[in-house]
Amino acid sequence: MSQDTKVKTTESSPPAPSKTRKSLPVLDPSGDYYYWWLNTMVFPVMYNLIILVCRACFPDLQHGYLVAWLVLDYTSDLLYLLDIVVRFHTGFLEQGILVVDKGRILSRYVRTWSFLLDLASLMPTDVVYLRLGPHTPTLRLNRFLHAPRLFEAFDRTETRTAYPNAFRIAKLMLYIFVVIHWNSCLYFALSRYLGFGRDAWVYPDPAQPGFERLWRQYLYSFYFSTLILTTVGDTPPPAREEEYLFMVGDFLLAVMGFATIMGSMSSVIYNMNTADAAFYPDHGLVKKYMKLQHVNRKLERRVIDWYQHLQINKKITNEIAILQHLPERLRAEVAVSVHLSTLSQVQIFQNCEASLLEELVLKLQPQTYSPGEYVCRKGDIGREMYIVREGQLAVVADDGITQYAVLGAGLYFGEISIINIKGNMSGNRRTANIKSIGYSDLFCLSKEDLREVLSEYPQAQTIMEEKGREILLKMNKLDMNAEAAEIALQEATESRLRGLDQQLDDLQTKFARLLAELESSALKIAYRVERLEWQTREWPMPEDLAEADDEGEPGEGTSKDEEGRATQEGPPGPE
After folding, report:
1. Each residue's pLDDT tens digit, 358-370
2. Using CA atoms, how far apart are residues 308 and 302, in angstroms rounded to an integer?
3. What pLDDT, on a 0 to 100 scale, did the predictor assign at position 425?
4. C-alpha span between 560 and 539 (Å, rounded)
5. Nearest to 367 by CA among 381, 388, 348
6. Within 13 Å, how many C-alpha atoms sit on residue 225's CB side?
7. Which sequence ranges form a coiled-coil region, renumbered to this chain (predicted)?
8. Which of 129, 188, 365, 512 could form a disulfide with 221 if both were Cys (CB 3.0 to 4.6 A apart)?
9. Cα 412–357–323 angle (5° rounding)?
10. DSSP summary character for residue 90
């Protein structure tokens, strides 16, 4: 009993809590943390690309700051090592879902070329310092293999920045500086190999006053390389084979550099023009059209001023075309964040469903009116409503001068004309003249767009009609008798429609019965025809009767008996 008790106690005791080891989180390659880490890796990569070559070609720079270089070298190596650790914890997308399994991330990363380049860039080539000494920075040239991280950081920044064209120009200038920097370092190294001051092409003898300083050596080499790569000229002619080869290589590099610069600048200019054309309408075609059609100067001036206003004040009139490539849901969210506050100010749209407002936001059309331009006139058919986003509009008399009221930002008009409210005394006609005082920005919502949206929200349509009816009552423009008559007429029409539907159902039932009877009759007729064919199939032909007369009575009797039996058997019934 004691042993059983011990066993049960041991089995029922809870397991000892295991120690959970904290691990690094998995980074999203499109997230902020990964983006800022890429920007951090720009510094060690740029350090190796710029300083390492300079130290290898300018011995005074290497000897004068050895301790600082060693500290910076191994700091960059530490960042390289941390970058590999970050790669081990950076997820990837599979079927559109971020994979966070570190085992799969590791197996995927080690099978890529990036892993081999990262390992090669961290090979401990510095151990050769023990034999050659610490003044041979060329042993660290394998650190250049980590340069793809620099290009990845530039691509991410270009995608995220608000000024991509300016960033492309800055990146191009950086590449030009790096190329000239490398070329100047190679020029100084070649001059040292050939001998300083041996001819006019190489770097002057450092024994001359002023040419022994490190800063002067670098600036002279950089200036000389700039003259060669820009093909400006004014450089001493080469005198030896090595100098000729260096000049030929630089000229070829300059040709390729010019082609790259021209292509990049053309791309930047084209992108800027394309962006302007996407945001603002092309006024060149309109100007040419007005010139060909001989439009009067005053109207042409108004059109040009309208286009100029859009350009100067960054007014956008084709938002739908700009956002057309976004997914529908994302496009709706962008439009909601920009315009929902304006739409929610309209009284008839208040307390409506959020999904309804999101649908309506996508239907808003921005419009800009010039000073003195009429938005609508009294008696016009109302096909849209307007929401004032910016500017001022005046409700004027028929003379266009007398002002009754001024509409400012956040106000709206024309909402009643786009809703079919029974008993509306004004119908769908405009009841006032609305004229823009200055430049006014409005949102336009057409009657067709509203009807299309409300067809999916019948409850919201009822609510909006009730609010519109309340507004008309306050304005004394709702005819209750006409409303009651329209309601009675609508009910009578619906009753007649229900009666027609019932009659149509009865006719369909009768037609179905007649069709069934017709099919049954056709089947019976077909069976009778088949039976007659079977009965007449064994009848003797005239030739057979003549032969039977020649042969005599026995044959005739036999054939009659067979015919009788065949007739009695009859054809097989229908399957």
Report:
1. 777 888 888 888 8
2. 10
3. 66
4. 10
5. 388
6. 24
7. 475-524
8. 188
9. 95
10. B
- Which tens digits make up the pLDDT trace of 177-187? 999 999 999 99
The secondary structure element, H or E, covering residue 394 is strand 393-396
| Beta bridge pairs of residue 386 | 413, 444
Whether residue 155 contacts residue 204, with contact meaning beta carbons closer than 8 Å, is answered with: no
Q: At which residue do the structure tokens 């790569």 appear?
A: 229
pTM value is 0.62
Cα 260 to Cα 49, 156, 233, 273, 387, distances in angstroms: 20, 21, 20, 20, 50
Name which of 413, 408, 411, 410 is nearest 433 in CA terms. 413
Interval 205-225: pLDDT, tens: 888 888 888 999 999 999 999
Sign of CA dihedral 267, 272, 277, 282: negative
- For tokens 């990837």, the residue is 92
Round to whole Å and give the CA distance between 137 and 59: 10
d(CA 88, CA 30): 16
DSSP state of 469: H
CA atoms within 13 A on the CB side of 516: 6
CA distance 254 to 281: 40
Question: Rounded mean pLDDT of 421-444?
Answer: 80
- pLDDT, tens digit (0-9, with 9 covering 90-100), for 496-505: 888 888 888 8
C-alpha separations of 74 from 50, 51, 67, 122 in Å: 16, 14, 11, 11
Has residue 230 got a pLDDT over 50? yes
Hey, what are 126's tokens?
A: 């510095």
